[in-house]
Amino acid sequence: xxxxxxxxxxxxxxxxxxxxxxxxxxxxxxxxxxxxxxxxxxxxxxxxxxxxxxxxxxxxxxxxxxxxxxxxxxxxxxxxxxxxxxxxxxxxxxxxxxxxxxxxxxxxxxxxxxxxxxxxxxxxxxxxxxxxxxxxxxxxxxxxxxxxxxxxxxxxxxxxxxxxxxxxxxxxxxxxxxxxxxxxxxxxxxxxxxxxxxxxxxxxxxxxxxxxxxxxxxxxxxxxxxxxxxxxxxxxxxxxxxxxxxxxxxxxxxxxxxxxxxxxxxxxxxxxxxxxxxxxxxxxxxxxxxxxxxxxxxxxxxxxxxxxxxxxxxxxxxxxxxx
Length: 323
Hints:
Layout: H1 3-14, E1 16-20, H2 21-26, E2 34-36, E3 38-51, E4 54-64, E5 74-77, H3 84-95, H4 98-101, E6 104-111, E7 117-123, H5 129-133, E8 136-142, H6 150-162, H7 168-176, E9 177-182, H8 187-192, H9 217-232, E10 235-244, E11 250-254, H10 266-274, E12 284-285, H11 295-303, E13 309-315
């Protein structure tokens, strides 16, 4: 990569997300959240934190911002926010559209520790009983890590596409499969402003191997549902949507069957041919022992006959290839 491209990616990726109430209200372009800030610096500050047997430094982010309006309210954030209410608004929009509502139904997967509904959408074309019984399942979830907001922006795209009554591609998929979509696996964390944990202080994506019904209710319920669906008719694909703070591009982490290594790589390869923003070369495949309690590895071992178990990652900054 040449320096100028690297420098521009750094400047954009490291810039702070900003929302100016007066700019949003007065600007003819209707600018809401946008990237801004100058003199951006991110550096090890010399303050040490002890982790197991080695010492690691904390980091400091500093930046300058010039306020452009008097008596303004300005918000600064790591990334463009997507709240629990944003998710509910997207769901309400689907429910209020008769054409979309006909192919999408909503129910509560389970209650969280705080008593919040963990929403689940079922998306498919209605048909005769035998036709419906022949359909296999695709399961998509997101936002198990509250701070990985980009996962929700991908999920919004998933919902807009799958519930589009005018899309020929989406219609074909709905005729072939039943989609079970859980947009927000950790709503408690999102509502309370956690970055990675639930209200129990747990990283829920490290509880898939043996989730506790009371401490990790959303993981327990989703794992149980996926297992049941696979026993009934088969799960063709399970994908959990995440964000990556260091790597660029949109890519997948998949598993690996040493006897048939191509089977876990086929879907991401096809996706890379269809999408100009998905980079197959950024994907990695393996069944690491250190990841055996995460959704990807745990469900790959659980489902056995389903090679398509993925974590899809979207960068927090930008892409480093293509136009």
